[in-house]
Amino acid sequence: MNTKTLAGITIDVNDEGFLMDADVWNPALALAIAQEEGIAELTPAHWQVIDFCRHHATANGAAPTLKAIMDGAGITTKELFALFPKGPAKKVAKISGLGKPEGCV
Amino acid sequence: MTNENRKIAFICSKGSLDMAYPALVMGWAALGNGVDVTIFFTFWGLDMINKNRVDHLEIVPVANSSMKLSMMGIPAGNMGIPNWMGALPGMTAVATHLMHGKFKELQVPPVREYLQMLVDGGAKLYGCKMTVDMMGLTQDDFVEGVIDIVTASDFIDMTEGAQIIFI
Predict the structure, then answer these.
(1) How many domains in chain A?
(2) Residue pair A98/A23 in contact by the 8 Å Cβ criterion
(3) Using the beta-carbon criterion (under 8 Å), do A105 and B107 form an inter-chain contact?
C-alpha cells in the first residue's frame, strides 16, 4: 500500500495503484488520477463511462469489465480505446476510484 | 506495473470452437492492460478469420477425453462421452450448440464479434502465407481487420521483443 496526495487530499492506493477506499473519491480526484494516467482532461464522454462504472460497482460490488462498459454505457470499442488509450481496463477503474475489474471479457 | 512497452503475439493454429477462444480472451485482456497485441493465424486457425467459416466453428466430441456426459446434461458424474456416442450423427452439432449456450450465459461474444473488438482495440491480425497458399485462400476470404498475409520470416521480424504464445 502507498499513500499519496492528489487533488488536495491524502489517499491510500494498493501496489497496482488502485484506490483503497472508494468513498474518498470525488470528481476532482478523478481528474487528478486521469492526469497521472496521461489523460489531460475529462470530457462528457469520459464522464459517461466513469458514471456508468461507479453505478455498476455500487450495484454489483465490482468494477465492470470492458465489455460490460461498452454494453452498459453504450459506447463502441474504438471510442473506449480512444477515450482511455493504452490500457482502458485499468485506467477506467483507477479513474473511477474502483478496484481492478473482475471478469475476463 | 507498467505494460506500456510490453508486446504479446499469439499464433492461432486451431480451428475448433473451443480453441478459438484462448487467444481472443487473453488478447482482449492484454489490450485492456495496454499491451501491444499481434495475432498470426496458421493452418486450421485460418478458419477463425475466414469469413465463410468463422460463424461455423464447431467442437467435436470424439476423442476428446475432457468432454464429460454431464456437459450434455446427462448426470453421469465424471464419465466421458464414449467415442461411439460422439460419432453418432448430430453429436457435433449438439456439442457445439451447448458450448454456444454456455458462452452466451457468461456474456462471452461470438468469435466474429470478439475478433472485431480486438481489431477495434488495436490488435494486428495476419494470415500465414504458406497455409493460405496451401488452402487456396486469398485476402478476400478473410474478415475485415486482417492486415496482410505474411511469411513466417515476416512474423518473426515483426514480433521482436514480444512474448509469443502458440495455441
Answers:
(1) 1
(2) no
(3) yes
